[in-house]
Queue: 3 jobs
Job 1
Amino acid sequence: MIYFDSFDESEECNQQNIIELPSGYYLEDYCDKFNKNAINDILNLCFDYCDCFSFSIYAVPKCDVTLQEALEPYVKQKLTVTRWFCYHLFKNYPLDVCTYELNDNTKKLLKEHYKYVFLPLHPGKPGYGLPSVEDLCFFKNDKLIFGTVSHESICQAYPPDEEFAKRFLEIDSHLKYMDDDDEQIDLNNIETV
């Protein structure tokens, strides 16, 4: 597995840029740089390898539903789950997830509307202007290849081959390799609520 090491001690990620949140830490300056520089490379790599993708759906007031509505014709599955990539939830508080076809139309929509790997912060304005879809994941033959938890700055890849791993590690110096498949998911084995 390859993951995003957001707690690097390098000059790019000095401690002054860390904002403490109730759920953990968010490296505002570095994550913004990672998002803007890497999102196109990540999308292009996943487009080359994957056959579908997913988003978690959030019903937050004042969020931007543009991408969610544009993707509606391409929905493969609508799932309500308590276990997803890096999510372990109670049955009374499940997560809504949609999987989508990966085709020329959805690739274009992702390139036009999905600008961040991680969500930028809008202090004092929860949900304001943020997309109603987040936690982008890509799959090949129903197995997770790349997963994110947008609001927690979590990014992991499960390379299907050495070429994918090499290309992924070249995207950013904060991407690291770790042999841990605990969060790997298979769409064929997902339990729904």
Job 2
Amino acid sequence: MNANEKIYIKAYNIYVVEDNFTDGETGDYILIADNNYQPIRAQFNTIDDALKAVCDEFNLSFKVHDWEYDEYNGNFIFSILVDKNVNEVSSDDIEAWEQGKKKLFSCNVTVTLGVCNIRNLLADEIKSWENQ
């Protein structure tokens, strides 16, 4: 990227689904948030900064190694176990979940990033606007 380019969040969605230790994700997917509901309007210098902004917005911990890039769809994705209130869980919660003593949910985050070129308006663009 050059000095005039910034990264922005084109789209994101966060959904949860019940996650059973034995059977995996079961039940209905519930959309928690997306860019239509709660847009994140900001510009970032790095991919990490943009992904961290999504995590920060929803009180999810950010660890760069938790994210994967899906080349086929062009999205960054990660998943984390949460409780029914969409709070991250402890290792004790995960142990109880593995033993079938606690219900946990998979919180799945998908983010699409883009790059925009930051520049001043050109005189011709302003003139065109003025002459509408």
Job 3
Amino acid sequence: MNREGVTAFVDCMVFLLVIMVAIAVTITFTNQSDEQDCDPDDFISSLSKMEVRLSDLTDIEDDTLVYVADVMAFDTANDTDVRTYLEDILGKMYGKHRFVLTYSYLENTVNVGDMEGFHRFECSRGIRISNGGTIYISLRLM
């Protein structure tokens, strides 16, 4: 091997090393779990439009489609599976332990999620439910 071949080989190895470092830095600073798939304000407003079967989230044997916000209002006085349902959705969207969803109806309040401390974003809204009342929902994100 002559001197020009060794130089070309070393040049190629340095180039590959620089590319590998650049890729590693890019992957490190673009963590997929920090990306938000949905704006929190949009998520809260979508709760008034999302429909589920009543029997999927409660003990009531009725396959009628109901809005999630209605089931949340029912959940404030009765224990249902809507808390687990919402925690799974929010955990996939914003990451585990990075949110607290609080909703209240009449005199009862429910918290979903276990984020503690500082939050960087908070969104609150009142949503009309089918019986004419209003459920107040707040979503805080870290």
